[in-house]
C-alpha cells in the first residue's frame, strides 16, 4: 500500500549559494509569526522582523527573498508545528476511524490556536482583491487539504473508502471540522473552546464522514 505524505510540504524559496544557517532561519520564522500575528502584514517590515530575530536584514532576504515568501513560510511552519510527522500517513495498525480522529483533533487544534485565528483576521480584513489571501490559502489550507486528499486516496486503494470525488470529500471533512466553534472564536463570541465539546464535535464529524464514504465491504468487517 502506498503511503501518503508524512507531513505538510513546505514551500522552498529558490536560493542558490552556500547552505543557510538553520538556526537563523528558525529565528526569522518565529519572529515573522509573532510580528505578522500582532501587527498584520502591511505594518510589518523586513527590518522589523530582522531586529526581532536578532539578525541582519540581508540575512532575512538571503533566506526568504521577500516579505510575501516569508509570510507563506511562516504559515507553513505553523501548520507543521500542529500537524505532526506521519499524521497523513496510512497506519496499518490503526483503524481508519482512529486515524481520522487524530487528523481531526490536530486540525481543530491548529485552526483554533491564537496564532491561526490572528492570521485569519489579518487576511480577511484586507480589501479585495488581495494577494495576501491567496498566499495564505496556498501556504496553509490548500496544502493541508492536499495532504488529506492523498491520505484518502491511499485508503480508497486499500478498500476502506469509496469516494467518487476525493478533493471534494477532503474539503467537506475539513469544513465540517471547522464548524460553528471556529466561527464563534473568530467573531469573539467565545474566548475558548470547551475541550469536551471539541472532542464530541470531532467524533461526530468523523462518524458522519464515514457514513458517507466508508466502503460497503469495510462496514462488514
UniProtKB/TrEMBL annotation:
<feature type="region of interest" description="Disordered">
    <location>
        <begin position="1"/>
        <end position="21"/>
    </location>
</feature>
<feature type="domain" description="HTH tetR-type">
    <location>
        <begin position="22"/>
        <end position="82"/>
    </location>
</feature>
<dbReference type="InterPro" id="IPR050109">
    <property type="entry name" value="HTH-type_TetR-like_transc_reg"/>
</dbReference>
<protein>
    <submittedName>
        <fullName>TetR/AcrR family transcriptional repressor of mexJK operon</fullName>
    </submittedName>
</protein>
<dbReference type="Pfam" id="PF14246">
    <property type="entry name" value="TetR_C_7"/>
</dbReference>
<keyword id="KW-0238">DNA-binding</keyword>
<dbReference type="InterPro" id="IPR001647">
    <property type="entry name" value="HTH_TetR"/>
</dbReference>
<feature type="DNA-binding region" description="H-T-H motif">
    <location>
        <begin position="45"/>
        <end position="64"/>
    </location>
</feature>
<dbReference type="InterPro" id="IPR039536">
    <property type="entry name" value="TetR_C_Proteobacteria"/>
</dbReference>
<dbReference type="Pfam" id="PF00440">
    <property type="entry name" value="TetR_N"/>
</dbReference>
<dbReference type="InterPro" id="IPR009057">
    <property type="entry name" value="Homeodomain-like_sf"/>
</dbReference>
Amino acid at each position: 500500500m502506498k503511503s501518503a505524505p508524512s507531513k505538510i510540504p513546505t514551500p522552498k524559496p529558490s536560493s542558490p549559494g552556500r547552505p543557510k544557517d538553520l538556526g537563523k532561519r528558525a529565528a526569522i520564522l518565529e519572529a515573522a509569526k509573532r510580528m505578522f500575528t500582532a501587527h498584520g502584514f502591511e505594518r510589518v517590515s523586513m527590518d522589523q522582523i530582522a531586529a526581532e530575530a536578532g539578525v541582519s536584514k540581508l540575512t532575512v532576504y538571503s533566506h526568504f527573498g521577500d516579505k510575501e515568501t516569508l509570510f507563506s513560510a511562516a504559515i507553513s511552519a505553523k501548520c507543521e508545528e500542529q500537524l505532526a510527522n506521519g499524521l497523513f500517513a496510512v497506519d496499518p495498525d490503526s483503524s481508519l476511524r482512529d486515524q481520522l480522529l487524530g487528523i481531526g483533533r490536530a486540525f481543530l487544534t491548529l485552526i483554533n490556536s491564537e496564532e491561526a485565528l490572528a492570521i485569519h483576521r489579518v487576511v480577511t480584513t484586507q480589501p479585495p482583491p488581495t494577494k495576501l489571501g491567496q498566499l495564505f490559502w496556498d501556504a496553509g489550507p490548500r496544502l493541508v487539504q492536499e495532504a488529506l486528499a492523498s491520505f484518502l486516496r491511499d485508503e480508497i486503494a486499500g478498500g476502506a473508502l469509496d469516494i467518487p470525488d476525493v478533493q471534494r470529500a477532503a474539503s467537506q471533512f475539513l469544513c465540517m471540522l471547522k464548524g460553528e466553534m471556529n466561527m464563534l472564536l473568530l467573531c469573539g463570541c467565545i474566548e475558548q473552546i470547551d475541550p469536551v465539546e471539541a472532542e464530541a464535535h470531532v467524533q461526530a464529524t468523523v462518524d458522519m464522514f464515514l457514513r458517507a464514504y466508508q466502503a460497503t465491504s469495510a462496514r462488514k468487517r
